[in-house]
Amino acid sequence: MRIAMIGSGYVGLVSGACFAQFGHDVVCVDKEAAKIERLRKGEIPIYEPGLDRLVSDNARSGRLTFSTHLPDAVGNADAVFIAVGTPTRRGDGHADLSYVYAAAAEIAQAITGYTVIVTKSTVPVGTGREVARIIRESRPAAEFDVASNPEFLREGAAIEDFMKPDRVVIGVESQRARDVMAAVYRPLNLIQTPMVFTNIETAEVTKYAGNAFLATKITFINEIADLCEKVGADVHDVARGIGLDGRIGRKFLHPGPGFGGSCFPKDTLALAYTAREANAPQTIVEQVIEVNNGRKKRMARKVIDFCGGSVAGLTIGVLGLTFKPNTDDMRDAPSLDIVPALQAAGARIVAFDPEGMEEAGRLLKDVTFTKTAYEAATGADVLVVITEWHEFRGLDPRRIKDLMRQARIVDLRNIFDPGEMRALGFTYEGVGRPA
Ligand code: UGA
């Protein structure tokens, strides 16, 4: 199969590299010449474990190439994937589809022979249909079908998720397009990956329903954590106790400072918008958005209360700034709410994050960044864990205690054992665990 990937951002680059690994010929296209230049040199613009290796291996074998010239890539392709950005539109919170539609218009001009145009970006229901209309209108004679193939990979585990997915969802409406998509994913038959073929609207809704459900699950356990704190229960045991029920499942029941990232906040907003437009309001999802936003804001209050009602003049060490570990992504990270609120309350922030400090430096003001976690603890009156990077779990609590001015920890990800920390002499508070 010859594949053109339009947009070489997170999803485009990971998908392109993985399709090349499947054995297909892939051209990743991007308008940003500097990005393509860097990719050609083997420089990966994002932090994703294993991606640099996958890109360089497949580039060396010639299966993966990079281009700024969309027409060449599309003209030769059996399948063209649209993986451009769909940011939240300013004003109404809906997904901004201008990049998708602009790509569709360009693709229309470049198609030669039968081509399947696939939306890979997360796009609201109706987008596939509109892409087809745009192409048909500008090239009535073009031989093509559209398909919707939403992506379910997680940042930080993207390659594993792509190469060993729980399922692949494909919205297609002709046998010919179905055959092309089946050929694209044929290597996954070897590991018996379920293929869910649907119509286009169904595939589009499936993506949003999946993310909204996961966001709801997190928000649910976060509220249960609040209850646990008040009544002396332990949310971890509750999560295990309910999660072992196969109908509920154990994953995505880790309480924390609220979900962030480039997907859940944006996709829940877009789903709520679509649903209101369609006159089928998603009241649960709307509540989830509100509860999660409130939670991110409340986390600073939790730290302030823990410190006896004021953090004025205190030095607060922060461990972790990205929205989750194994990424340098700061989009909608809870730290972006927590840090400024603590600063506004008079605290000085000293922070460490293994990958996110460059971006955090652009988004947060007056933060002192350190080279190690221990340095962030040095002289601190309280240490706040915002992101559960694996390396933080291995920190030596005795050493941390010696370095801090006051041995106090607010652990918003429950990475430490409360009993152990208290036995060592820390004043310690987690999320949803008995005091
Ligand atoms: C999410 C979905 O998990 C992917 O399946 C989907 O493909 C992706 O969005 C997307 O639409 O592109 P991602 O945003 O990379 O992936 O990250 P997650 O691992 O899902 O975490 C999202 C947020 O939820 C993070 O802030 C994380 O800390 C939080 N979270 C997750 C919790 O607070 N508790 C949990 O139990 C799980």
From TrEMBL:
Residues in the signal sequence: none
Domain UDP-glucose/GDP-mannose dehydrogenase C-terminal: 317-418
InterPro entries on file: UDP-Glc/GDP-Man, UDP-Glc/GDP-Man_DH_C, UDP-Glc/GDP-Man_DH_dimer, UDP-Glc/GDP-Man_DH_N, UDPglc_DH_bac
Keyword annotations of the record: NAD, Oxidoreductase
One family name in Pfam for this protein: UDPG_MGDP_dh_N
EC number annotated for this UniProt entry: 1.1.1.22
PROSITE patterns: PROKAR_LIPOPROTEIN
Keyword Oxidoreductase: yes
Catalytic function, reaction form: UDP-alpha-D-glucose + 2 NAD(+) + H2O = UDP-alpha-D-glucuronate + 2 NADH + 3 H(+)
Domain of life according to the entry: Bacteria
NCBIfam families, per the entry: NDP-sugDHase
Family: Belongs to the UDP-glucose/GDP-mannose dehydrogenase family.
Protein's UniProt name: UDP-glucose 6-dehydrogenase
